[in-house]
Design a protein that fits this description.
By secondary structure, the chain is an all-alpha fold. The chain has two helices and no strands.
Length: 62
């Protein structure tokens, strides 16, 4: 079904579902960052990828 064929109420329902999903994801990420001690630690492979990204960001290429 295309977006043009949806009624106004259906569009509102879709928007509410998308908003609720986004809100739940934001709440989850906030809780994850405040509770999990590993959220802010860059370890193992992620440390390598983080350093690589910083080099690329600084214009040093890859």
């Amino acid at each position: 079904m295309s977006l043009e064929k949806l009624t106004r109420n259906q569009k509102i329902a879709v928007a509410l579902v998308l908003f609720a999903a986004a809100a739940l994801r934001v709440i989850y990420v906030i809780q994850y960052l405040t509770v999990t001690p590993f959220a802010h630690a860059v370890i193992s492979d992620s440390a390598y990828y983080d350093a690589w990204a910083m080099r690329v960001l600084a214009g040093q290429g890859y």
